[in-house]
Amino acid sequence: xxxxxxxxxxxxxxxxxxxxxxxxxxxxxxxxxxxxxxxxxxxxxxxxxxxxxxxxxxxxxxxxxxxxxxxxxxxxxxxxxxxxxxxxxxxxxxxxxxxxxxxxxxxxxxxxxxxxxxxxxxxxxxxxxxxxxxxxxxxxxxxxxxxxxxxxxxxxxxxxxxxxxxxxxxxxxxxxxxxxxxxxxxxxxxxxxxxxxxxxxxxxxxxxxxxxxxxxxxxxxxxxxxxxxxxxxxxxxxxxxxxxxxxxxxxxxxxxxxxxxxxxxxxxxxxxxxxxxxxxxxxxxxxxxx
Length: 290
Prior knowledge:
Elements: H1 11-23, H2 26-33, H3 37-51, E1 56-59, E2 62-65, H4 67-91, E3 95-101, H5 103-110, H6 114-120, E4 124-130, E5 144-149, E6 157-163, E7 166-171, H7 173-176, H8 185-189, E8 193-194, H9 201-205, H10 219-227, E9 232-236, H11 237-246, E10 250-257, E11 261-267, H12 274-286
């Protein structure tokens, strides 16, 4: 059974004992800890009372560890060394930058380029929060966000346009077969339609009421279904550019620009951490599609 940590002696008492045991002097321990000799002696005495054991033999010329004290010192020193190592590792961690993006931005734009970011910024640890929810910079400790939004922006926000929400209808070449492209609205309406959380089909097809077809909570899932030949998806051109170029999808119709658009956003702060500035600049270079 694990012993309760509540039975541990006070940390200050352990620290006073560890330094006194290394230095074999309350005076030297007091100098190292920056407290009075009396305070060190009192902490050690309290520790001995807590343990019910004598840890030192006190002599006019200094201290001598008892057998129990020597054994205890070795273990306590090892514990403090472990704490020091853990703290050191924490402080030398790569600088962490947190970016909040939608799952589709993460899957289609950010993740395929992470190798480039690691090569360019090897000392930066990028923490990606993929969510459809709007992140709060302060509450969620987010440094940078990619948001589907439009101007004007709050005075405390800095925003740069990454790409327009230019919508295209896409499908697997297997589904389209020998059909002549682009497809008409009538032809599209006759095919299985794949819906995402934004569900722009009604606007594009100028229909009223709910259109049939499976519904996905993320655009990337609708695109995966389209590549599997299950229907036609409507998505931002930036998200399907790679799949179109590779022939996994074909553009069957164009819906055109439909705001809001995708912006890179961060809180205005001074000074800006160098790592945050570096990731911000990288995003503008590698995610910018105008």
